[in-house]
Amino acid sequence: MLLAFLLASVGSQAGVRTLTLSLGANVPDGNGGSYRYESVEDTTLDRNQPDHSEGGDFLLSGGRDKTILIRFGDLERVLGNSRHIRKATLILSIDSATKPELTRIAQLLEPWGEGPLHVVGAIRLVPTKPGGPVPISLPAVGSATWKDRRSGSNAISWSLMGAQGGGDGASIDSAKGVQKGDEFEISGLESSVQFMANHPLDNHGFALSFGTTCDFVGSQDKTRRPRLILEVEPEMKPGGADLSVTRIDRTPTFDVVGNRAEPDKGEVMTYTAHVKNQGTTAVKALTTRWSLGERSGAAIEVTKPIAAGAEVTFTTAAPYEPTPGDHRGGSVRFTVTATGDIEPRNDSLEINANAKAIGLTVEKSFADAVTQRGQSLEDWAQAQMRVVNETYLPHSRFSFAPAGVLERYRIQAIQVIPDGTLKDQRPGEDLDAVIVLSAEMAKGNLDAVFMPALGRAVGLANLGAMNLNYDRGAGRAPRISADRFGGVMGGGDTRFDGGIAKFFVLPYEPYSNPIFDNAVLDPTGLFSATDVAALNAGIDRRGKVKGSISDVPSTVVIKAVGLDGKPLTGAELNFFQSKGGKIDDGAPAFTLVTDAVGTASLPNRAAEPRANPFGPIAEDGSNGLFLVRAAANGASEYGWLKAWQLADAYHRTGQLATIFELRFSLPSEPLDEATNLAEGRVLKDSAGSLPAKLAGLVDGSNETEVTLPAAKGAWIEVDLGRDRPVGEIRLVMKNPQFWSKFDIVGYATGQDAGAAAPWSKEIDWDWTKQARAESEPGGGLSIAYRGSAGRFRYIRLVSRDDSDSVFKLAELKVVPVRSGG
Question: How far, in Å, CA of 375 to CA of 368, rounded?
Fold first, then answer.
């Protein structure tokens, strides 16, 4: 017995791991991969502004008249089989001089809403006192205030304002708060987080009260975000009964293509909960409870036994309450509890009464792969849909959709079919769409295939069809069009853009731009802006949504600029359109020449559904891509223009005309490419290395490599001997690991390096390496930085990378313009 205990202890310690959850953190997905964690909400409730929502603020404020709410969701996916929580600690970064004094932390018992993120220009002016209006953000539907946990016309109040009541939250007596430097650490949260992990629908987060006025950094800030640190370990599930709420159906149903798209207001709807005992022993008695609109009904004792493998149903009825344009409300929840139930995570299920009905058709091998993980197909599918409704839809937020997607989905039917019998599944009369999961999909990450399968089912465009590689021939690196900030459907842009004025069109490739360089533009990896526009536009229509990639401005002006942002005058632009999954590089679809300010208007080649330069766009978007070859001053470069980029510009700005910037690494004057001004010259670096150690960078050979200093602000510099007319800097490397961000500074004789402005700025080396690399003879690659010609004696590369990785460079080439000597 003692030996068994010791072995169990050793095994437990061996499986212990630490997870750090914060907005944007990279966390394991339980399948050997990882994903970006997005399920964090926080806000401040203020007694002095009882109807004011502060969700989306960059600060969380504590004090005697304030309550901080914070929630870390998606624990079911984060934890996987590591279900036992040994330790849980909440860490907040202090942003005020006052020492925080924690008076209470409670586990919240009721749901609440963070509210939409803030959008520049969307704040309303509301008169609140004599003397004129002050800027104040009115509470959006469903957002939490001091007065209500859900504001709006159908507001739901706290049991005691400020979430201070016993019905709002249960005090966590084991919790202790202590300041450590500029952070405030709250420990002793294990039991509460364990409950949240075991009961996903009852994870409402924490309410924090402080006796002193203090501020903390909120999750919307760029750095020092709140963190929940968990120490977890695997937990074996014993045998026994396991009641699972596998589905909630809504009847009557309505024909997707029929005359009635929605029930009438007040029409009585019947909801049927399917409960299955997926355990190994019978349940002798249980308790059931329906909750409608987040208001709990009475608990009902049921004494009829449910055998292992048996299924029973329970029903309730309620009048239908339509919510046009917003399907987040109208929750219907069913919960079962039974003594000895071994799996609490599937004891409750919630749908939205207005949600679109989804069917799930699964080939047997996929279903078997799910059960081999120790989970029933029904539980797995409902857990996936929970992630959709609680994370992917609400957290895919943009300036035109600050509350994310307002649609919701519910599973109405699940069927398993033999392998090889999967055909084009059509929605039934009571289904808006059918998700199909094939046996082939079971070979990869089971969880990763669900979201794009849902997207395809509901009608979203395959944005990945526009991610093509242009093969430029033997010995030349291809041009890559993969989206840097893509989402569920294989592409698009998932960055929240609310901090940028809407009349600016976002850059979709990471070039330096003073307007955007310091902006908080976090990519979520969830649904892209293109997806969200389509989903929100189709809320009040049954069936599939219409893809929004054809919603492009009717007037599109291209502005061609160099890497430095200066216009390319008289540049020839050839547009080659994608077709059949590749670029047709025969005759271009059309050719333009830029004017004196670098602009050219795209011709419209289709009138329906809206005038656009692509012509009729295929439903899957496969022809919605232009490879743009720009030629100027004897050099050529490539860029990409995608239909979804123009659609996003339209949704973001609301304008039928847009100026879209394309950047090309082109010189301002013809280059003398046969000359390398740096060859044989003297170098020095910030580490004080001997010139002989650095000489490999200018020896004319790509085979020798030099290790660069690794620190933010580190630099390496070549002296050209005298002022020379420079038009290109080329970096050659065998090892593609390089500073992630850096400046190229050129300065003249007698000039101070610190006073010189960067000639070129690199803000995302990984993207540049992928998108603009040139193959070098004998292997390796090079990147050319071109721009406005300048007269420089010194060329300095300055790192803005704070990592301690090993960085190497094989050759530094400096190419002059032809007019120089």
Answer: 10
